Amino acid sequence: MADKIATREAYGNALAELADRYDFLVLDADLAEATKTVKFKKAHPEHFFDCGIAEGNMMSVAAGIATTGRTVFASSFAMFAAGRAFEQVRNSIGYPHLNVKIGATHAGITVGEDGATHQCNEDIALMRTIPGMTIVNPSDAVEARAAVEAALRTSGPFYLRFGRYALPVINDRPDYRFELGKGVLLADGDDVTLVATGLCVSLALEARELLAAEGIGARVVNIHTIKPIDRALLVASAQKTGAVVTAEEHNIIGGLGGAVCEVLAEACPVPVQRVGMNDTYGHSGTVPALLEAYGLTAANIAAKAKAAIAMKK
Amino acid sequence: METAKLEQLRSAARAIRVGVIEGTHAAKSGHPGGSLSIADIMAYLYFSEMNIDPANPAMEDRDRFVLSKGHCAPALYAALANRGYFPVEELTTLRKIGSRLQGHPDMTLTPGVDMSTGSLGLGVSAAAGMALAGKTAGKAWRVYTVVGDGESEEGQVWEACMFASHYKLDNLCLILDWNGLQIDGPVAEVMNPTPHDKKLEAFGFHVISIDGHDFDAIAAAFAEARTVKGKPTAIIAKTVKGKGVSFMENQVGWHGTAPNDEQYAAALAELMK
User: Fold this and answer.
1) CATH class of the region A184-310
2) Cα A163 → chain centroid
């Protein structure tokens, strides 16, 4: 297994590298050093434009650029890309369905010490409500790079969600293939399905080991594309295992947990337990301490799995 | 200006005003006041200034127009229809279910609309993005955007101005429709954004102040804007809200009210005189 790497690093690397094969511009709002678009800026300064600390303007500028036929990335922290600039994303980018790729970094509580004002646990919920918005929340650097390339190859608005914290690489295998809108069945089991996204995917794999030690078989599904979500895989998994746990670094309201419940309530009602930020703000602290404090752990996912299984009729 | 050209522009402006009245009357809603105040500017843009082709609305090297004060869509639609983008008869479908003419401009539905707008402040930024894209691609196209005076209370307008100036977007021309009225009353009383000239100059614009109903002044201002290099131009157009329909002129109440049948007939009679 390779060294740990943050998905924001992979984002910056992908922008710098893919510019040789794809034509696009990159915007940032005074956070290039942090979002890692600085890597693109250094490699292709003529195609990089800093918008200063004015995220709303940046999103509408990006929309204007896209109307001329040029693909454009607009980057900031998730809090400001999806939160501050929500209305610009909705009206300037989403409504005309323009080819703008929003690269949102520092999503979730793994921002760490900066605390709650910068820990965005609402962005998936906000972006999910925009018709036509594709949302990808990659689980590691390999998937992050693949997501950037998929966004370049697919017309329309994208919300790409990246993190600050270095994560283990779990997808560096020869048969790995990124398919937009398709969940990834990482491991199979009969008793419960662990549906995870982002950094929670590796936690779900750890939780599967914990459950196996107790004789419980867990299927693990990585949902990197939260919208459009892979309904077929979710329904098939619910039918097979009869119980589901969702795990995400986001509010359990409106994110992956909400999306999975919407699908299953309509197509295959089974017990669901949600792991994530339990409708609360974050806090300053080290990332390991925060993950522990808010229950984003393999142990908690395993405990929720047992709770879901216990609810089976 | 030659008499023939002046007459052509006056005729176009009259047709735009008629279209505004036809559309808002048929819709029983909409924004006639600010649509009438920009009618002369829209006529000049669409019948003289811009490099456009109604037969090919997506022509790559065309000039672009963004109606940042998107609620004045009736004026934009009337300009486009009279310029040949779609039938003038369609103007009376304004705001109706199934129509291509939404309450605020939708670039995905209406031929000739270069940007969806309506939420105030956003259009100026989009216009700046188009201008930046043009410069980056080495294109000669120019970008025009009409901004409301009330709209200039939105912070994003000034973010966009900062951006346009920072990137030396001399292919961008902002027209401020200074009609002095917004929904809650006189702009100066609701939230005074003046002095626009000094603020825009401070934000790095070349500023030209004109009478927004004087075609000679409008023509001279757009010609001057083309000569300005290294900075964007702002034309502050002093206008009359409701211009051309006497009972609507300078009346706040006509910001967002449609004429009834009687008012419709009176307005058309006056415009057709």
Assistant:
1) alpha beta
2) 8
